[in-house]
Amino acid sequence: MSAALAALATSVLCATATVTTWSMAREAAARTSLREAPANATPTATAPAPTTAPATTATTAPATTGAPATTAPATTAPATTAPATKDKSVRITPSKQPRSEPAPESAPRPEGRLAAPEIDLGFFATDGSRLPRVEPPNALVQGREEQGLSPLVGRSGELARPPLVDRSRRLRASPRPPDFGFTLQPGERFKYDILFGGNPTGIAEAGVVAREPGPNGSPDRLRLEGFARTSGVVALLTTLVYDMAAYVDAKTGAPLETGSITRREGLPGSYKRRETTTTFFGRGFVEIQDKRDERSATQRRRLPVDTFDPLSIMAWVRSLDLKPGEKVKAYGLDGTVLLRVDITGKGPVRFEGMPPIGTALGIAPDQVQQFEGSITRVDRYGAAIPGKKAYKMRVWVSTDGRRIPLAVESDIWFGVVRLVLTQYDPPRPQTSSQAPAGAPARPPAAVPAAGPVPG
To answer: What sign does the CA torsion over 305, 310, 312, 315 have?
Structure first.
């Protein structure tokens, strides 16, 4: 009996320890679930704890030892129902609502910062200054202030607005002169007396020698020749002989190749003989071979597209038919010196200094057109070279179809030089195979056809 009671007590103690351990494990699991649950989770109910396991253990132990089966439920009931009643339902209720982040506030605008303009001109730095532009500034708009932006000073101002010294200049865009090759007729020759102070100081000649086919099947070309030398009193001091030959395009009049030889004797100079050969590789590019005595040099240069040699520039002036006040310009290359020739039309005038050859050719004093202009030494960009004098010039051309230059006047550093026509040879008759292409120099006026006039 005592052994049975001891066994029963041992069973009750084991059952009580088992229930207590199981209840503690459930409470720990519930607390862990409460800590790990999210703040906004919905509370859920916990199922009641089962009570059959302790009761089964309590009734099985007495049966094994031979104890009465009816005494086990009465003894174990209070121990098994207490934990079940305590963990019948567990409800989790959060004590705080979910945290909400406040909306970010806009950063305050620094004082003195200007409003961004409509056009994006750059970003603003922290100190309120504007970053310089990436694209290169235009030299034509220097000094212009952007609307809404204060002028920059210091290094920022130098970067945003560089000085007017533009080291990346380009050649000025100039239109090509109209074609005037049809005004050059083979066989024409002009001879002039060079007068200085009313005294003859030299003679000059120019003429159109021949029309030739271009090499390697290129378009036809015209050969022009010129000659000048000193005479009279000037020849006692120095002798200067100048020979020139040039090939120009038979249609446009643009120079193709030019060669000149200058010989000097008498007063000492920098050279005795000078040979210059100029080859035009299209308009805008030239190669110059210059030989002075035993020294020679070759250079290649970029030039404006409307650049002529000395002979073709005279032919261009002769072909002009300007209204009073109309202005044109072109460039001329004399050796290695680039000149700009500006011409202004003066209209028909009465030429009182008509040379005798003009009267012999049947040109009346009022059949003359006058041009005035200037000759300026310039750089490759067309800007006048500082310290170089600009010379004035005047030209008188007949208004008949022959367009004969009667006189040319120009002032130089020691006075006024005047060229007066003394001889003129008309062009040779052209055969059908050598007839130049293009319109005549002076097309006749259109004559209306005879017929009834509509009423």
So the answer is: positive
254, burial (CB in 10 Å: exposed 0-12, middle 13-18, buried 19+): buried
Tell which residue, 143, 167, 32, 155, has the closest CA to residue 90. 32
Provide the percentage of residues in the chain whose pLDDT is more than 90. 39
Measured in whole angstroms, how far is the alpha carbon of residue 148 from the centre of its chain? 27
Q: How is residue 260 annotated by DSSP?
A: E
Q: Which residue has the higher pLDDT, 70 or 247?
A: 247
Contacts of 197 (CB under 8 A, 6+ apart): 415
β-pairing, 327-334 vs 415-425, is unpaired
Q: In angstroms, what CA-CA distances link 137 with 20, 63, 142, 171, 381? A: 90, 109, 8, 17, 19
Selection from 255, 222, 211 nearest residue 430 by Cα: 211
In the beta sheet, which residues pair with residue 411? 416
pLDDT tens digits, 328-352: 999 999 989 999 999 999 999 999 9
Q: How confident is the model at residue 31 (pLDDT cuts 50, 70, 90)?
A: low
Q: Tell me if 278 sits within 8 A of 286, measured CB to CB.
A: yes
Q: Which amino acid is at 289?
A: Q
**Chain position carrying tokens 């865009």:** 173
Residue 299 pairs in a beta bridge with 288
Rounded to whole angstroms, the Cα distance separating 354 from 337 reads 33
pLDDT (average), residues 417-428: 93
Q: Where do the DSSP E strands lie in 114-185?
A: none
Dihedral of alpha carbons 365, 366, 367, 368, sign? positive
Cut 0.70: pTM above it: no
Structure tokens that stand for 240 in this block: 């200067």
What are the structure tokens assigned to 178, written together? 């109209």
Dihedral, CA of residue 216, residue 249, residue 375 and residue 236, to nearest 10: 70
